[in-house]
Write a structure and sequence with these properties.
The protein has seven helices and twelve strands. It is α/β, with parallel strands linked by helices. The chain has a single domain (10-210), classed as 3-Layer(aba) Sandwich (Rossmann fold), CATH 3.40.50. The strands form four sheets. Strands 6-5-9-10-11 form a five-stranded parallel beta sheet, sandwiched between helices. The protein has a three-stranded mixed beta sheet with strand order 4-1-12, with no helix packed on it. A hairpin with a 5-residue loop joins strand 2 and strand 3. Helix 2 (57-68) packs across helix 4. The protein is globular. The two termini are 27 Å apart.
Amino acid sequence: MTQCDWSLPVEAVGSRVWSALIAAQIFTVNADGAPYIFATGETGTLKVDGELLQRDPFHYGVVLGFMATHACVRRFGALAFVPNGTRDPAERIAGLTGKPVIYMERPEGAGRYEYQFCSPADSDLVAVAGSVTLLEDVSRTGSSAYAAGQLLRQANPAAAIHSLSMLQRGPIDSQYETGPHSLVYHTLCRRDVPLDVADFTARYGITPRVV
């Protein structure tokens, strides 16, 4: 992981992460023009594919460095990840920090938010840790992290649960930030990223990767 500097203003951290995501070409369009279907049920022609970052070791290291040293990672007892795409970052950060990882999964054929613990030991770990940071690559409304957080709360209703994403591409839905089951959301980089590729290119001047 690349050494990072949290003495920088939040905006400067966001700019560094944004530059890393652009360099890693995580913004994609389908070669045949087919739309993507997102967690919210909406469709769009632009996808932000966080897993593509893992193919670029240098820029992946930049982003992981900031995630690993974020306050909610340093202070909380355990890590988890939103199934299934953020497992690698969670395991790498766990190796650096010594934090345990709580494993959840979305079984094949299950609904988008039908998460389960991988073993009883993972459920038990939530109670022992008392506080969990949920890692996510790209978030838009916060719904995926919220669903994963509710599974954690089943194991420990009193647990402090924060979510940390690499990129927050839209506003968090207020229903996920309020009430007794709410999460506290953090992100390294906040940018409004449209669902439509033409809008995205017009706004940022970036040509997406064709996949």
